[in-house]
Specification:
The complex is a heterotrimer. By secondary structure, chain A is of the alpha+beta class. Chain A has helices at about 40-50, 90-100, 110-120, 135-150, 165-185, 195-200, 220-225, 230-235, and strands at about 5-15, 15-25, 30-35, 55-60, 65, 75-80, 155-160, 185-190, 205-210, 210-215, 240-245, 250-255, 255-260, 270-275, 280, 290-295, 300-310, 310-315, 330-335, 340. Chain B folds into two domains: about 10-60, no CATH class; about 60-270, MetI-like (MetI-like fold). The chains are: A alpha+beta, B mainly alpha, C mainly alpha.
């Protein structure tokens, strides 16, 4: 039951700016994901919400109260760390009980609350062990149990799944999402993994260079990117971004010509964005014609890389598509799924 | 030299050298041990006797004729007390130096370390007058305070090194879990770096057993004589020294030190370099 | 539910608070002060045994002290100190005895470490080599005093094997007396360096060694070209620590030679002790202390910061 607001929040160390003028409102019960490459300021933003880092300027507001001066321990937030940060000197039981002791929850209730939290993450059998004797996945769940045991106002999760192997990560993702829906606790989740972001988030905040690039639901982020950074960051393989010229509703680049792109007045340089799945291999010359550079069969699909003017364009083709290297391929685009961006600012042209 | 391995290293040479040094270490110790169990008559002869007769003369003498119990008690009290003082002062200091970012932190750390470089003799006279003024001369309390002071830098730096190894995320987690700084120190940091704290305590205890100059100045009777200085008091033999008693007391002090060092063996090199070497 | 929140300055302000949790405010001042409070007791304690005595020694050095009477002396104590050979002699003795002992300890420890660290019996060697270090320095002084004493074991053994024909006077001849101090120190403290060097060698990345082996380097080539350069910082730290202890050598001198013959084994520590507590010339001894204090401070500044980099991650 908490709403978090960041007002013009800024963090800098000397001349280095980590987070620049972030404004963000996280609504009650929301699952919000901060997504971005490493060093983009997402973890710093989260640590400022937690109170582990003081903002250089701006306010962190929880439930209408400015909490800049409030210590991390008094903010009633629970955090799950990438390294799990389990206390190695305590058993799992003691680990999960730790926040209860620190918050003066009556002793009589400890056993019951710990047991319940442990069962929620299916860790009931391991309570007497030390963290060192647990597998990565079990440690991860213990860290989760420690976070949920006291039912905090806010969950903060800093790349909690990135130390797990791929299979376990997928399984835990589902568990996490289910758990958050069940507990209805406002959650901020930091990751650099776009799949985690897409699958978990109610809303995604994409950050780069300390600034917010776009805020939106996973669908909005995917189908309506605000700039080339967002467009290129989301999607696997990511959106193709092709530099060219836009004139009288036509976009041209070496090997590419697309007409009927509305009436953008005047001639200008622009970037055309097209997702690999919005490209179709056809038999006759179409929007885009180029030589095949590589073919990567993926099982359910085939990714075809085409070489044009020194850079590669990736196209999704049918699973049985095969063709010799260096032969010409003809690609037609879904015209209503094309994006145009300003060449210099990278902002979307609308 | 048949003992050549593929690596080309001369194994025979290796063992000759290592065995030679082992003898250098062991022979004087065994010989000194034999001194401790000789009868009085054999230690005052001018010519060395290589096949001594076994005797517990010295053992009876140190307890019956000399206040050995006092020496032991003084050593124990002064050392234990000084280690406690050191830990009480050093643990918070080390935590502050290892974990907080503040102005002057490096300078404070180096100031603490630099006291390790101070020769005891330099401060001996003022310290002597200080304790004289306080009326603490010839007391175990004065020894306790001095030993604590001598070892505080070492203890602080060793513990600091171990504390710096604790991942920051643990403390962040504890903080968001609701722990105050002091509780984090008490419940998380201290238990995790307990091996470092024990190592520091053992090394401080050994240095305290060894201490000589200050003890010589402060102690003047059996009220404060420790084993280290008491050795010099076993006088009365032909060349002025009662060597069988000296040897025996030396070994009495050696045994606990040996056990302590075996106990912290894995951490010894790290402790001796004040944490600089993480073995 | 109402909660009490604390604002800077300690004035309690009653504020409407969120449904759960206590949001206690702590001022930036309080948070900034906390680390200083943690380190303050230790620093105060150390100031008591360094700053106070330092100031005291400097102050006292400007007086002639006769029992309880302090007669102002100006710089006379210093003039006397620098004019007399005793002080310079003590400095020189400390330097010579310490320098030779430290060099020997370093060479022996490094050689032993080189031969021992890959040996399968390393744990055994470590324990055996460690033993001399576990005796009290005063005990070690007595071991060697007795061994070197006139007509005792060392002379006797040398005569038996026919190397010498009459007892060597170990404590009456300048370099012999210095030698006894050096032997005692080397015997006791070579293990200190050995333990550290072995640990440093064992801690080194085995893959680097293996890569060098595959490149065809012999063990000694690896040691000289790779292991030793990598060990430099550790060697520096160990040698500094040993060097500090060796220059403050006192117990051995007190027990073995008392500075004889003719003050040629008198170290600076023993000099200060003798001036203060044997001749009760406290002002003069304090002048020597003050000079040593300043020397120590300079050396500490030069050495410590360089070799004890805090190594923060």
């Amino acid at each position: 039951m908490a709403e978090i607001e960041l007002r013009n929040v800024r963090k800098q160390w000397g001349a280095v700016v980590g987070v620049n003028d972030v404004n963000l409102t996280i609504t009650d019960e929301e699952f919000l994901v901060l997504l971005g490459p490493s060093g983009c300021g997402k973890t710093t933003t989260m640590r400022m919400i937690a109170g582990l880092e003081d903002p250089s300027a701006g306010d962190v507001v929880i439930d209408g109260e400015v909490v800049n001066e409030v210590d991390a321990r008094d903010r009633d937030v629970a955090m799950v760390f990438q390294s799990y940060a389990l206390y190695p000197n305590m058993t799992i039981y003691e680990n999960i009980r730790f926040p209860l002791r620190m918050r003066d929850v009556p002793k009589a209730r400890h056993a019951e609350l710990v047991q319940r939290a442990a069962e929620m993450v299916e860790l009931g059998d391991y309570l007497h062990r030390k963290p060192g004797a647990l597998s990565g996945g079990q440690r991860q769940r213990a860290a989760l149990a420690r976070a949920i045991v006291r039912q905090p106002h806010v969950f903060l999760m800093d790349e909690p799944l990135s130390n797990l192997d791929a299979k376990l990560r997928t399984a835990m993702r589902v568990q996490l999402k289910h758990l958050q829906r069940q507990l209805k606790i406002t959650t901020v989740y930091v990751t650099h993994d776009q799949v985690e972001a897409m699958t978990l988030a109610d809303r995604i905040v994409i950050m780069d260079g300390g600034e917010i690039q776009q805020i939106g639901t996973p669908d909005e982020i995917y189908t309506d990117p605000a700039n080339t950074f967002v467009a290129g960051f989301i999607g696997s393989p990511p959106m193709n971004l092709i530099g060219g010229r836009l004139e009288g509703g036509s976009f041209t680049a070496p090997g590419i010509r697309v007409d009927g792109l509305g009436e953008n007045a005047g001639a200008r340089n622009a970037i055309l964005g097209v997702r690999p799945e919005d490209c179709h291999v056809v038999g006759a010359p179409a929007h885009f014609n180029a030589k095949i550079f590589a073919i990567e069969p993926m099982g359910d699909q085939t990714v075809v890389s085409l070489s044009t003017d020194g850079h590669l364009v990736e196209v999704r083709a049918a699973r049985d598509y095969r063709a010799p290297l260096d032969s010409m391929a003809h690609i037609s685009f879904d015209l209503d799924r094309l994006y145009l961006f300003d060449e210099t600012s990278g902002e979307r042209l609308r | 030299m048949a003992l050549r391995r593929r690596s080309g290293e001369n194994l025979a040479l290796r063992y000759v050298i290592l065995c030679a040094w082992a003898l250098v270490c062991l022979v004087p110790i065994l010989w000194f041990l034999s001194i401790g169990f000789r009868p009085r008559t054999e230690i005052i002869t001018p010519q060395p006797i290589y096949w001594p007769t076994f005797s517990l003369d010295a053992w009876h003498m140190i307890w019956d004729d000399w206040p050995m119990a006092n020496y032991l008690r003084n050593s124990l009290l002064a050392i234990a007390g000084s280690v406690v003082i050191d830990l009480v002062l050093a643990v918070p200091a080390a935590y502050s130096l290892a974990r907080y970012n503040y102005k002057g932190r490096e300078d404070i750390g180096f100031y603490i370390l630099s006291t390790r470089m101070m020769a005891p003799a330099i401060v001996a006279i003022p310290i002597f007058f200080l304790f004289k003024g306080l009326g603490l001369l010839d007391t175990v309390w004065a020894l306790m305070l001095v030993y604590a002071a001598i070892n505080l830098s070492v203890v602080t730096w060793i513990i600091r090194s171990y504390m710096m190894d604790i991942p920051h995320e643990l403390e962040d987690a504890a903080r968001t879990d609701g722990a105050s700084d002091l509780r984090i120190l008490w419940e998380i940091v201290i238990p995790i770096c307990l091996p470092g704290i024990i190592t520091a305590a053992v090394i401080a205890a050994i240095f305290a057993i060894n201490e000589f100059l200050f003890t010589l100045l402060i102690a003047s009777t059996k009220n404060a004589y420790t084993m280290s200085v008491a050795l010099a008091n076993f006088t009365g033999g032909s060349d002025g020294k009662i060597y069988n008693a000296i040897a025996l007391v030396s070994f009495l002090a050696f045994v606990p030190v040996f056990l302590l060092v075996v106990f912290i063996q894995k951490h010894l090199s790290r402790g001796l370099t004040l944490g600089a070497l993480k073995g | 539910m109402t909660q009490t929140a604390f604002k800077a300055g300690g004035a309690a302000v009653v504020a409407a608070s969120p449904p759960a949790g206590r949001r206690v405010r702590r001022s930036a001042f309080q948070r900034k002060l906390f680390p200083y409070l943690l380190v303050a007791p230790a620093v105060c304690y150390l100031l008591m045994i360094t700053l106070y005595p330092g100031v005291y020694a400097i102050y006292q050095s400007f007086f002639f002290v006769r029992f309880n009477e302090w007669i102002p002396a100006g710089f006379d104590n210093y003039v006397e100190l620098f004019q007399h050979d005793e002080f310079w002699g003590a400095l020189w003795n400390t330097f010579v005895i310490g320098g030779i002992a430290l060099t020997l300890e370093c060479v022996i420890a490094l050689a032993l470490a080189y031969y021992a660290y890959r040996d399968p019996l390393i744990r055994g060697w470590r324990i055996v080599f460690l033993l001399p270090m576990l005796f009290m320095p005063s005990a070690v002084a007595f071991i060697w005093k007795l061994a070197f004493a006139d007509g005792r074991v060392i002379s006797d053994l040398l005569m038996r094997v026919g190397l010498i024909t009459e007892n060597i006077d170990f404590l009456g001849v300048v370099w012999n007396a210095r030698l006894t101090l050096i032997v005692a120190d080397v015997w006791q403290w070579t293990p200190f360096l050995f333990i550290i060097f072995v640990a440093a060698l064992q801690a080194q990345d085995k893959e680097i060694e293996e890569a060098a082996r595959l490149d065809g380097a012999s063990w000694s080539a690896i040691f000289w070209n790779i292991s030793l350069p990598l060990m430099k910082p550790v060697i520096a730290v160990a040698v500094i620590l040993r060097g500090i202890d060796i220059t403050t050598m006192f117990a051995n001198v007190f027990i073995m030679t008392q500075g004889t013959p003719g003050g040629t084994t008198e170290t600076i520590s023993f000099f200060i002790y003798r001036m203060g507590f044997r001749t009760f010339n406290f002002g003069y001894a304090s002048a020597a202390s003050a000079v040593m204090l300043i020397l120590t401070l300079i050396i500490a500044q030069l050495l410590l910061k360089r070799f004890f980099r805090s190594g923060r991650a």
